[in-house]
Amino acid sequence: MLENATYSILSPEGFASIIWKDASRADEAVKLMKVTAQELYELGVIERIICEDEPAEEESLEEIAKIIDKHMREFFHSCADKTPEEIMQQRQKRFREI
Length: 98
Fold this sequence. Notes:
This protein has 98 residues and is mainly α. The chain has helices at 12-20, 26-33, 37-43, 61-79, 84-96. Helix 1 (12-20) packs across helix 2 (26-33).
């Protein structure tokens, strides 16, 4: 995951609406949701944080894509000797421990 990215299946406003019935508490909700790369790494949800040497802007997208491609290739190479079932079992085990 890129270091400045966030990931969530629900917006902070949606989370606040569900938990507190008050979407205006989105700032409070985002702190509970753990959506940053560092938080997700510490939780074990992601395997790696990809450093961003420059901000993600239209001019830098091609370079960022190359960096992501490099890290994805390294990941796929590290999984090359595993069966799909082994990868699935490893991930299921990891997410059960979270």
